[in-house]
Amino acid sequence: xxxxxxxxxxxxxxxxxxxxxxxxxxxxxxxxxxxxxxxxxxxxxxxxxxxxxxxxxxxxxxxxxxxxxxxxxxxxxxxxxxxxxxxxxxxxxxxxxxxxxxxxxxxxxxxxxxxxxxxxxxxxxxxxxxxxxxxxxxxxxxxxxxxxxxxxxxxxxxxxxxxxxxxxxxxxxxxx
Length: 176
Prior knowledge:
This protein is an alpha/beta fold. The chain has helices at about 15-30, 40-55, 85-90, 105-120, 135-145, 155-160, 165-175, and strands at about 1-5, 35, 55-65, 75-80, 95-100, 125-130, 160.
């Protein structure tokens, strides 16, 4: 399975890096391919290293303005002109999407993927690894949107939240 992962390019506290490293080991060890932002920096680099060490395949989708941070050693590295093209490539290459902790870029990516799914432009599973309750605010906002009729599909059809790296694969592999 090609699993696109959205996450931070910043170095983070071990409460975030340990679950991400476990997720990476599971992804690579299960024979899946990581499709990610193509960076060696921060959590992105940790993720790529973990997948590679566990025997997984790496497909990086970088962007020209960040080419200097491209991960060396990816099995495939694509460089796009801009962030919009990168997001499109990341989704196109995905069989599933997983969201780890991240900042504004990650939030932008996940909301676009959800918007496209809401309009039935894809039906790929989207799973959030909600480490240390990082995405509780997003979950709360999405629940309110669902309860108040802002979503044309039930929230459970759009996204799944879990705090356990192994459960991510339970959700994804059930859909495969």
